[in-house]
Amino acid sequence: MQGNTGAAGYTLGVIDIGSNSGRVLVARVHGATHLDVIGDARSPLRLVRDVARAGRLSAETIERTLCIVRGFAAIAASAGAERTVAVATAAVREARNGEEFIARAREELAIPVEIADGDQEARLGFRGAVHGLPLEHGIVLDVGGGSLQLIHFRNRRLHRSWSLPLGALRLSDRFLRSDPPARSEMRGLKEHVYAALERAGVTALLADERLVGTGGTIRNLAKVDRRLRGEYPITRLHGYAIDRRGLDDVGAVLSGAAAADRGRVPGLNSDRADSIVGGALVVQAVMDRLLAPHLTVAGYGLREGVALGSAQAATDESAAVEQVQRAAVGALGRQFGAYDAERAKRRTAFAHSLLARLVPGLSAEAALAARVAADLLDIGASIDHYRRHAHSARIVADANLDGYSHRTLALVAAAVYAVGEREASVKAYAPLLGATDQPIVEQIAAGVGLADALVRYGGADQDLISVERSNGHVLLATPILDSWPLEAPTRRAERAFGVRIGLDDRVRVA
After folding, report:
1. Contact yes or no for 282/100 (Cβ under 8 A)
2. Could you tell me the CA-to-CA distances from 152 to 145, 155, 199, 316 in Å, in that order?
3. β partners of residue 35
4. Which residues contact 204 (CB under 8 A, 6 or more apart)?
5. Torsions phi, psi of 235, nearest 5?
6. Residue 357 belongs to a domain with what CATH number?
7. pTM of the model as a whole
């Protein structure tokens, strides 16, 4: 699965020939730290059913799958892919004629097509899943149609992996014969998973570890959970957390409906109606075995792992969180004409200096949110200058900002929005933010707003500000064009930080 892409900016197509479904991803690869997705598509395959029934892929299934994969390759080409690769997983791996299918696919499609063994599948899934999440230690759970992958990682490095024949469609077909499934059938499926995990030596998470879930089964469970919750402020699924109780609620809704009705459950892809209950039971059993109170959803998986791996030497280590965060912010900013990288850099430095002196005990999470808010404050001006802060906040809540938790993104969006308002409000960002977060958001907004004013009304050569604090008084020393535009942001900062702020503007810019 390793490719030589050269410099950042290579466009790659990745086709995933999965046991239950097939997908294509087309992405612009910016080194090993960032992907810009520019195309994708999905189609059900159901390959595992052939393998479970006869141990091989039928001629009809092979023809249908080749037709779908041929369409995926065309999608990648039309999106500008300079190279396209295909990876097949458990069902093709297990099929007696899997190698014959792969040989024919290579010949007819004229692209590299490989079968990933269990270890490779786990490695690729790990690389994709962990990349965009701010997590150092944990276990990745990837529930496919035919198999289940568990990948234990420490310090963002793969430590151990398990590949088990516990896929959602495979177990649904084997255990869930009634429609809707009977309690005894569901219990039998979970007991089968418990026994397999015990035999494999899978043990509970350590105190500093988290469970990460990837794959279509888990993403669909999370989408249903989000619809059951109601309003939720962050659009993207990547980074969404579902707790054990939420998973039970989702499972009850899905298992209580017949397959024909299940496909109409809000949030669920209808073609997963026949496998999603089995998938939910597998995830429940894994969470029980790991003693995991919640699961963080990764929007990335095997396909993204292939793409990220194409830009670096083969490794079992994911890029550092800080690198991913910086790359994501820079990539988002560059998409907007109103983004001025130099101004953003100065505003971020000013905000850091101000907040470090004005709020000595500011948490690392709030400091990170302030840095991102200062950097991306103006991107909304590309839509409407007069409502730029509201538009910037909406972009932050909707964008592909890898490396940040949903809570951090909510803090950023709330603070950016608040810069353009008289005071902060967190109501729109529940349940991620609550009443105790409002003063924090107000402080971030006040600091970033004052930093923005200093940058806008300072001289062109203004690089530094001096912040001196003593006995409840703060003195800002910086060259400025005039002091009157700073009066409103200064008064707001005084209220937010409980200090008197003086401005040393004796050195004026001519």
Report:
1. no
2. 21, 10, 17, 11
3. 29
4. 289, 290, 291
5. -70, -45
6. 1.10.3210.10
7. 0.91
Output the pLDDT for position 403: 96
For every residue of 388-445, DSSP letters joined together read: HHHHHHHHHHHS--TT--HHHHHHHHHHHHHHTSSS---GGGTTTS-GGGHHHHHHHH
Instruction: Tell me if 310 is assigned to some domain.
Output: no
Task: Residue 185: give its domain's CATH number.
Answer: 3.30.420.150
Q: Is residue 317 part of a domain?
A: no
CB atoms within 10 A of CB 208: 10
Residue 316 lies in a domain: no
Residue 379 DSSP code: G
Nearest CA among 16, 14, 18, 42 for reference residue 169? 18
The 10 Å Cβ neighbour count of residue 53 is 10
For 130-191, the DSSP string reads: HHTS--SSEEEEEE-SS-EEEEEEETTEEEEEEEES--HHHHHHHH--SSSPPHHHHHHHHH
CB atoms within 10 A of CB 100: 13
What's the CA angle centered on 122, arms 119 and 128, to 5 degrees? 140
The band of 463, judged by pLDDT with boundaries at 50, 70 and 90, is low
pLDDT digits (tens, 9 = 90+) for 43-101: 999 999 999 999 999 999 999 999 999 999 999 999 999 999 999 999 999 999 999 99
Spatial CB neighbours of 414, under 8 Å, sequence gap ≥ 6: 393, 424, 425, 426, 428, 429, 433, 437, 441
Sheet holding 500-504, edge to edge: 466-470, 473-477, 500-504
**What's at 309, amino acid-wise?**
G
